[in-house]
Design goal:
The structure is a single chain. α4 (94-102) links the parallel β4 (87-88) and β5. Helices cover 36% and strands 14% of the residues. The chain starts with 13 loop residues before the first strand and ends in a 23-residue tail after the last helix. Strands 3-2-1-9 form a 4-stranded parallel β-sheet. It has a 3-stranded parallel β-sheet with strand order 6-7-8. The chain has a single domain, classed as Aldolase class I (TIM Barrel), CATH 3.20.20.70. The model is unreliable at 209-229 (pLDDT under 50). The chain has 229 residues and is of the alpha/beta class.
Amino acid sequence: MGAPSQGVLGGHRVVPVVVLDDPGRADDLGAAMVAGGLPVAEATFRSPRAAAVLARLAANQDLLVGAGTVITAAQVDQAHDAGARFVVSPGLSAAVVRRCQQLDLPVFPGVSSATEIIAAIDLGLDVVKFFPAEACGGLPTVKALAAAFPQVRFVPTGGITAQTAPIYLAHPAVAAVGGSWMVAGDLLASGRWDEVSARCAATVTAAGTPTPVPTAADPGRHAVQGAPA
């Protein structure tokens, strides 16, 4: 059925969502994230040079890089060829999921409803991106969905901030969160790499809540080793 998504994030519970159009800045960005103790990134396919940015980031052996905003099977191939280790999508595309499974590439499709979660389960998935998190009701919605689908874990993304991330992470159904506050566009544009490192370090400290212990009804299946969109 393809590579399991759980554990692919290597214990990192916050995934920086990177929007960068200049591959020439990718090396400095990757070094800054590693220095800040958060060596994981979702490089979004929102710009014409996204694949080149992803490839430059992925060349850093200390960095775990995935592709974000992937909406077609062709983009899955581009991401895979560029060195992506996982794929994140804003929505649930069976074509994207199946292509990732063919390539043994972990995938986190976006969902915001019970119907979409059932479709993800039918595709063999048990970790999904919850997007757009804040616009879709935030943590109360996650709690409601988690109660209906105890076998599923969520990666909320969209509107998450440095202040709200630890609140989400405290819920046992949340595997990780995605956000851009530590890699904000103005920081990348101005090359403020020290600030990127400082925000990454602060994020790691704030997100240091231990991973919740699985319940007896589901022992270990969904434990995050240490978790896309």
